[in-house]
Amino acid sequence: AYQEYVRKTPKSKQFAEEARKVMPGGVTANIKAFDPYPIVMQRGNGAYLYDLDGNEYIDYLLSYGALMLGHGHPAIKQAIQTQMEQEGTFLFGTPHRLEVEMGRKIQSLYPSMEMIRYTNSGTEATLLAIRMAYAYTGKHKIAKFEGHYHGGYDQVLLSVNPTLSEAGPAHAPKSLIESKGVDPYHAEHTVILPFNNLEAVADILRQRKDEIAAVMMEPIQGGFIPADRAFMTGLRKLTEELGILLIFDEVKTGFRLGLGGAQSIFQVKPDLTTLGKVVGGGFPVGIIGGKKDILMQSAPTSSSDVFDSSQSHKSSAKDVLFHSGTYNGHPTILAAGLATIEVLEKEIDHVLAVTEQLKEGIRKLFAKYGIAMQTVGMGSIFNVVITEEEEISNYRDLQKSNFALRKELDYYLLASGIYTKPLNRYSMATVHGAKEVERTLEAYEGALSKLI
Length: 452
Ligand code: PMP
What we know:
Blueprint: H1 2-8, H2 10-22, E1 41-45, E2 48-51, E3 56-59, H3 62-65, H4 74-87, H5 97-109, E4 115-119, H6 122-137, E5 141-145, H7 185-189, E6 190-193, H8 198-207, E7 212-217, E8 220-221, E9 225-226, H9 229-242, E10 245-249, H10 261-266, E11 272-276, E12 286-290, H11 292-295, H12 331-368, E13 373-376, E14 381-386, H13 395-399, H14 403-415, E15 418-419, E16 426-427, H15 434-451
Parallel strand pairs: 3-15, 5-6, 5-7, 7-10, 10-11
Antiparallel strand pairs: 1-2, 2-3, 4-12, 8-9, 11-12, 13-14, 14-16
Helix pairs in contact: 1-14, 4-12, 5-12, 8-9, 12-15, 14-15
Bound molecules: 4'-deoxy-4'-aminopyridoxal-5'-phosphate.
């Protein structure tokens, strides 16, 4: 499979050599590197990406789920252009119309987000959520689930992808640091919980309720392993009872599970929610929202709350939760995001239906070739998990799957024009339709017939 990949992508190979002289590993996000070198894209259009060698791909990575209207959607282009032309600037540096328009839209789709603040990425949104939880509860530890990702900073870059031999027992996972340079303090400070195991979670939370400010979770792990419904409602009850906040990180699931995210599907109301990806229409954004009294901690009470060297009486600043950012609520990005939501309001059912068609087609082909597998996921994201297991309900179940075979399959698929990063999940967009599903299934059939 590798050979065909290399044969078709000589210009990507050459580019990678140059890129490695400029950026460590030739990439500017570690996740974007893979062996022997990543494909370098040159152009996108709708559901398609085109690489330096002119190969065409149906894109199922969609920038890690961010592009739910595909590449270069005309409605987004138009919205950006109109915003810039009519308002004449890229950035006001003051409050403006679109902050409130987007805010109202979020409030209507996510009723738990009574008030919101903007950030520039999902990472910044979860970081702010933690500060808000600390301030609100007066406690200073966060609990997160094994295998869940919330951004690359020290408080949460723990046990996202741990080596199981070091990770401790399933019912009480250890907190494992996953990067050089992380202060070991955080392994002591961040509590790791087992996903979809309410009994074990209850034991840990009850024991440490006086230290833990909040449980942060991806309602759907990695965007594709759903929380069990009873687990989710149980966890909501338990956290309420123990005085621990519940934070839904819906950076991936927001707008993708349904317009109202996982919370509308599960009918569970978190205290805080973070959004990102889709709501930026392809541009960097994050939103945090939740209960009014939690968000209101960051409301400045007077100009003296703002860090400004010209102010002589800054003492009240410590009573206000600090949140700032030059680009927060960027007008051009919010225009792109609002245009995205408008299109999705009309077309999300199409995306969900096409996702089901593709999943079913893939399952049928694996069955035809006698390979046990599951399509794991809800809404518009799923993963192809080659496994004999009956149920994939957490990180440890997933580790029992056949990653080697899946990887080989992915290189065959790349060589036949189906793009996702090897081992990554599939994200769907409004621009995927019957034609793309058909081509994808043909490629699968070709790959599987060679693999068997
Ligand atoms: N939370 C989740 C659930 C995510 O999937 C991601 C990004 N993959 C983040 C947070 C971080 O978002 P960003 O990359 O925009 O900082």
